[in-house]
Amino acid sequence: MLEPQPRKVWAIAHTGALNNLKYEDDLLPPPPSDNVRVKVHCIGLNFADIFAILGVYSATPKEKFIPGLEFSGVVEAVGENVDEKEWLGKRVYGVTRFGGFATFINTRIVYIKETPERWTDQQACAFLAQGMTAFYALKELGALKPKQTVLVHSAAGGVGLLALAILAKFQAKAIGTVGDSSKIDVLNAKYGDDPNFSFILRDPARDFEARAKNELRKMGEEGFDIVLDSVMGDWFWPNYRLTKSAGRLIVFGSASLTPAGNLHPIWNIFSWIKLAWKYFQRPKFDPMQMIQDNKGILGFNLIHVYHQEERLNSVFDELSSLELDPPLVGHEFPFEQVHEAIQLLQSGKSVGKVVLNIEHV
């Protein structure tokens, strides 16, 4: 008979401020009959974690909760209906609808995969959420075809890098944007010799459209078949105008709306005012104009597919068939330094995935 497992977690009872995220002792119940218990080694951070902690993410639980959407580790125990010989001791990585900021986690096997032998735990926890986001956006919604032209915002981020890897498999042409010139050096180190790939600074927004058109002309193209927009803000309408007729603008994030600090209702009223101003300035469009322009705007959040297990695994299987290289892990922090790790991600200065490492004693 399995016993409850003592563990450490980062939990939050009141959203709005990063300081409300507290390091706590917790007791994990034995895994249910169709679950396994994973001893977590690494946790991948996502922008959704920031939005959840600050209370501006609609999927956030209303009660006290543990953030975190993806993890990697080793199966330490199994429920009575799970094949012990198949799963016990296996290195795995997986996704969860919150609950990932923990040293141990119970999960159904439908939400975990065996970690490839050549991948580190850090690489494994950096793959699922962002890889499936990139693939779902490009293939499921964007209907990506070989040799099409695609604009990828935040190309040096976790989703952006995996999107570029997928586009390379399809021999697509891609223009990627970044917020800092040093990130162009990172991208050129991998794709600089590929004439189908080009990278530009996102700022200043006022002449972004002209600079993007210039890069398109160099490629012999007039617009984009697909635009991956994770920033919105001042770039939304240029993105729309740059999308070809019959093209698709895929919106899956709003980094420009990410609060720079906490959203405590009293002592950071200016953050609320700034966020409210951005919210009221958000893009508004006329569906009739979309018909006339013959373009599509599609928005998605992969977390809403979480309970559609067959579809989720179908996307994963297609993604796996591409045999991508392991993702780039740009920054690693001890589990105890979750505040510092989130602040780095929040700053927009990270490259690749930001990962938390757990040292079990």
What are its keywords?
361 residues, alpha/beta, six-stranded parallel beta sheet, 32% helix, globular
What does this structure look like?
The structure is a single chain. The protein has 361 residues and is α/β, with parallel strands linked by helices. The protein is 32% helix and 26% strand. Strands 3, 4, 5, 6, 7, 14 and 15 form a seven-stranded mixed beta sheet that branches. A six-stranded parallel beta sheet has the order 10-9-8-11-12-13, with helices on both faces. The chain starts with a strand and ends with a strand. This is 4240_t:CDS:1. InterPro entries: ADH-like_N (IPR013154), ER (IPR020843), GroES-like_sf (IPR011032), NAD(P)-bd_dom_sf (IPR036291), SV-ATPase_mito-regulator (IPR052100).
- Tell me, what's the shape? globular
Helix content: 25-40%
- Rg (C-alpha, Å): 21 Å
Hey, roughly how much beta strand do the residues contain? Answer: 25-35%
Low-confidence regions: none
Task: Lay out the secondary structure.
Elements: E1 5-12, E2 21-28, E3 35-44, H1 47-54, E4 70-78, H2 84-87, E5 91-95, E6 104-108, E7 112-114, H3 121-125, H4 128-141, E8 149-152, H5 158-169, E9 173-178, H6 181-191, E10 197-201, H7 208-219, E11 224-229, H8 236-242, E12 243-251, H9 269-280, H10 287-293, E13 296-299, H11 309-321, E14 329-334, H12 338-347, E15 353-357
